[in-house]
Structure formats: structure tokens, C-alpha cells
Fold these 4 entries.
Entry 1:
Amino acid sequence: MSIPKKLFIDNYDDNRFLASDDGKYKCAVGIYKGICNYFGVDYKLESEDELMSREYEELKAENDRQNDIINQMGTELEELRNTAKSVIYDYVDGNMPEWARPTIQKLVDKGFLKGDEEGKLGLTYDLMRMLIINDRAGVYGK
């Protein structure tokens, strides 16, 4: 590859590659080899194993960093799911979603929902959704 070819950047990937340390190093090696070949001089570089080892370590470090982020996101998502599932709606009040209140109040008024001995309904979000769906389907009447 000639020197002018290395200096011609016609797309984003080439630009990003040449801006990276690895890209600069590979271009420098290519130019070095070209000059040595032109003058008939032997050249000596790091072994290919050392180059591959360095690239592997850089990629492994980046992969580990990304895995840490993914694992943290998974942990946070699981915590969020557990928090959302643990909400219990005991009363028809401001804590209950507004969309659920009319149906739940109707079911309490009709005696379909009575709660425990303290009057706590103990409704989960999923149970409220099911009750709303049934009510919209006309299961509980008007």
C-alpha cells in the first residue's frame, strides 16, 4: 500500500480507524515497511503474537467494560421489576391508578370485593388490570 493511499479517507470507518491508536500504528508500520523495501533494508517489528496479544487485551478490556454495564442494567431492571410487583393497592384512594378507581369502586359497592378483616383489598397491578378488562367486557354488569 502506498503512502498516498493511506492518506486518502473516503468514509467514516477509514476515518475512525486512522484516528485510533491501532490504526496509526498499522499505518506507521506500513509506511516503515514500504520505505525499508524501497531501500532494500531489513526491518524488524514486534512479533505478530505480541501485536495480537495487545489487540486481544484491548478488546477483552472493552468487552469486560460492556459486560459490567449490561450486568448493572440487568440488576437495575430486576430491582425495578421487583419494586413494581410489590405494590399492593388496599384502598380505592389516591395511591390507586386513576384508570382503575371507577371499576374497583363499582366492585366494592356491589360486594364483589370486600377485602380482609381490616377492609384491605390487597390488589396487585396485574389483578386490577384483569378486573378492568372483565368490567369492560361487561362481566360485572353496569
Entry 2:
Amino acid sequence: MERFQPTDLINDPRFLLAVELFNQADWYPAHDAFEELWHETSGQARQTIQGVLQVAVAQLHLQRGNRRGATLLYGEGLGRLKALGTPSLGLDLDQLCICVENRLQRLQQGQNPDDCTVPGLIYDSSFPE
């Protein structure tokens, strides 16, 4: 199987579809779309895709009432997205991490994470990697 590099990945229409599904809060299809790309991606870009994928799954867990699963996956996703050298792939990872950190903190404090902004992906297709 051919492995994607960051520039190939951000030019793949499936990447744009995955971002769109994520931003529509269509968590399960977003997870599937990012997972397909994750299987085909190599290097550090794979870490970025996995982190975003884990945020989508955390949201899915919240929809299903699984706060513990959401807490774990938010934490794992943040770890990957904040790791040194993680490529942004044109995504505003700082904004995503701030949002996820706020939601994770609310979960850890027994509060409602839905009082915070729902995670979204700001994408700049002109961003060079």
C-alpha cells in the first residue's frame, strides 16, 4: 500500500471530506474518513490524523453517554496533537487543542463539556507544510 506524505494528504479530496464531516459534528462518518486516511499515511502526519480521529471518537462517546471513554480519548488525542513535530496539515491545531482541553477539563471536574464550544477544524488549504 502506498503511504501518503503531508502534501499528498492535504490534496486528497477524502481529507477535505473528513474535515467537512468533523465540522458538521457527524462524528462516526468523520471517524471513518480519518481512519481510512490514517491507514494510508506515514510519518508524523499519521500522528496528526490519529489525534483528530481520537477527538471525533471522544465526541461520539459523549453522544452515547460514555464520559469515561470521552475523557480517555480527549487525553490521548491531545497528547498526539501537542507532540513536538506534529505537522498541522493546514489545520489550526492550537485552536482545536484549546477547545479539547476545555472540554476535557469540564469532564474531569464532573461538569458538562457541552457548555463549551464543540470541536471544529479550521483548515487553510494554502498553508505550506
Entry 3:
Amino acid sequence: MKLLTPDIAARLSANDAARRAAAARGEREPDPEPVVRFFNPVGSATWLATEMDEDGILFGLADLGFGCPELGSFALAELEAARLPFGLGIERDLGFTPHHPLSIYAAAARSAGSVLLGERKLREAAARMSGRGHRIAGRG
């Protein structure tokens, strides 16, 4: 299954080029928002990718569902080649919209033990900060 559209691939490659350029200038590497989220439809594995090199190696946050999400590299070809039960494969989350840089997702995921639980904590915190998480007295 093809997991990337040309637009997503271009954005991932642009982030890779920006990181390499910053490193070449001796500057701090950018901390972009994830461009894409992949998931296992019959398991708990989740990947958030921010960049991709010319060999199809992605960089981002990988959570294989064992309670220890980590930043690292993973191969697009391996995600596309994965064969899961019921004839399924790894899928791209079509509704994913990032709201934070990768470092925030990584910190939340490490604290919560998974990308999905970390995202839930981030949403809950944002709701509390915006006032949506507060109940009005007398309104139950």
C-alpha cells in the first residue's frame, strides 16, 4: 500500500532539508510539527513522522505499543510492506492534524507511555487552559 501522497512526501523531504541545512550552519535543528501519522489498524503501534531522506527513511516518534515510545528512524518501505491479520496493512491517518512540534508529542508520549495517551493528555490540557474543561457551578 502506498502511504504517502506526493504533497506529504514533499513536506517530509523539505523538513529533512531544513534540518540538514541548520546542522550545516551549526544552528539548532528545527522542531517541526509531525507531517503524517501512521497506525496499525489491528494493534496499538503508531508513528508520527516529521521528515524523510532520499532513501525513504523517515524520522519521528515511533510507538510499537510496548509502553516506551521513542524518537528514531523507520523505513517507509517496511511500513508499506507490513502484512497484518485480515489482509490489512499499516495505514495513514487521513484525519490527522498536528497541533504541536514533535518534541511536545514525544514528551507527552513518554510521560503517558504511548503516543495515543499522550495526545489525549495534550488535548485535555488544552481544553482546561481554554476554559472548555471547566464546569460552570450549578450546571453539573
Entry 4:
Amino acid sequence: MFSVYIYTPNTVEPFIVNISQAAKTTGLTAKTIRYYESRKLISPAARLANGYRDYNQSHIRELSFVHHARELGFTLEECADLLELYRNKERKSSDVKALAQQKMTDIENKIAQLQTIRESLKELVSCCQGDDQPACPILEKLAG
């Protein structure tokens, strides 16, 4: 949205945006950006004399990276690990793959757990008449 580049014959100069523009560009809220910065998940933004934050293209990439990783279910700690690998040009792709595979296993385990819960709820719902009477096997099962 606000990805603004200044093109010169052989270079691309980075742009500087404030926190609201960074939020619009990355799809995050300003509050989330400040939180990520306070947790030292992203590089600290430059501060103007008035205390406002200035974000450059590197910050926007980091914020977008974390946003996409969070959408895939990675925790903030896992995002920090992934960002460290992202920043390390000497990284091994096997390390990145291992983190992604572990996340996939975690998600598969969570799906299995949710399927078990769904089956239990289906059974409870099927036992209840759902009429105007006060008796309810769902409540009885939960109580006991």
C-alpha cells in the first residue's frame, strides 16, 4: 500500500514511514508494532526529536515477516528464532525446515485434539432433546 521507492539510475533509496504508515503497509496495528519493538522482536526504530518512530524498509520487511509467520501459527519466540535465521546469511536451510516441520507437527497434534473434542461435543449434542424441558444431558455430563 505505502511501499514507496525512489528510483535512481542504479539504486533504490529506502523510504522512511511513521508507525501508522508502517501499520497500514504491514497489516499490523500500531499497538502490535510497538509491542514487537518492546519485546525486541524487531530492530528498534529510529526516534525523531519529538519521540515519534521512523521505520525504514528493513523494519517493514521484519514486520511483514513476523506478521506472515504469526498467520502460520508461529509463536513470538518461534518468530524470533526464524527472524534470527532470516538475518543470518550463513544460515542452514535445514535449521529453518526443522522449525517449520516442528510447527507442522504441533498443528497436526492440535487438529487431532480438536477432532476429539468435536466428537465428544457431537455425542453430547445428540443426547440432548433440546426441548422446553429443564433436563439436559449436556449439563449433567459437564457437572459430573
